[in-house]
Specification:
The complex is a heterodimer of chains A (114) and B (111).
Chain A (H helix, E strand, L loop, with lengths): L3 E4 L2 E4 L5 E7 L5 E7 L5 E8 L2 E5 L6 E7 L2 E6 L8 E8 L9 E2 L3 E5 L1
Parallel strand pairs in A: 2-11
Antiparallel strand pairs in A: 1-3, 3-8, 4-5, 4-9, 5-6, 7-8, 9-10, 9-11
Chain B lengths: L9 E5 L4 E6 L7 E7 L6 E7 L4 E3 L3 E6 L4 E6 L8 E9 L2 E5 L3 E6 L1
Parallel strand pairs in B: 1-10
Antiparallel strand pairs in B: 2-7, 3-4, 3-8, 5-6, 6-7, 8-9, 8-10
Classes of the chains: A mainly beta (114), B mainly beta (111).
Chain lengths: 114, 111
């Protein structure tokens, strides 16, 4: 059973388009996160949600918006895609806010903007 | 050895040898650190953590050392195995916020 799953695994799209990446966790965790990993492997946290409330919002452009329909899902919407958005996006979850030691990561979504 | 430029620092070790992966962290106020392992095509996976009130912590085949004086972390892997080949990240956390990952080191285990 997959603990944290993401769809799609690969996403190729053109500049200016709007796209979404979905994330689901079946661990019963209360907190979910989105990370961006660039081509140099730098990993940076973007958002986290706890009980449907956004609790971390790093300096991310407002073209990115997380949406959580329920505790098990945290989707990432990206508007007006730019070349610099090309990266691997990871979803993660943990039981509690700030429980970094028990974060479970999804397999990643590789986004390529052309 | 190491590579520079756009490539990750790389550490190559013989199978069975010990590996030491180093990390310099940025914030002297950081009080909690984690080492992650990321295999090709997968997300990061927690390996071991350490709080700033400790200098050393051991797990199964892994040891993390913390030197707060020079803001340095190291991950030691004993008897390195082919399955240890991955990119390793350190991450620092200050007071539960601003969790920051380091740039990563690629470990390559040679047969």
């Amino acid at each position: 059973d997959t603990a944290v799953s993401q769809t799609p695994k690969y996403l190729v799209t053109q500049m200016g388009n709007d796209k979404s990446i979905k994330c689901e966790q079946n661990l019963g965790h209360d907190t979910m996160y989105w990370y961006k990993q660039d081509s140099k492997k730098f990993l940076k946290i973007m958002f986290s949600y706890n009980n449907k409330e956004l609790i971390i919002n790093e300096t991310v452009p407002n073209r990115f918006s997380p949406k959580s329909p329920d505790k098990a899902h945290l989707n990432l919407h990206i508007n007006s895609l730019e070349l610099g958005d090309s990266a691997v996006y990871f979803c993660a979850s943990s039981q509690e806010r700030g429980a970094w030691y028990e974060q479970y990561f999804g397999p990643g979504t590789r986004l390529t903007v052309t | 050895g190491e590579s520079v430029g756009l490539h990750l620092p790389t550490l190559s070790v013989q199978e069975g040898d010990n590996s030491i992966i180093n990390c310099a962290y940025s914030n002297s106020a950081s009080d909690y650190f984690i080492w992650y392992k990321q295999e090709s095509g997968k997300g990061p996976q927690f390996i071991i953590d350490i709080r700033s009130n400790m200098d050393k912590r051991q797990g199964q085949r892994v040891t993390v050392l913390l030197n707060k004086t020079v803001k340095h972390l190291s991950l030691q892997i004993a008897a390195t195995q082919p399955g240890d080949s991955a990119v390793y990240f350190c991450a620092e956390n200050m007071n539960g916020q601003n969790f920051v990952f380091g740039p990563g080191t690629r470990l390559s285990v040679l047969p």
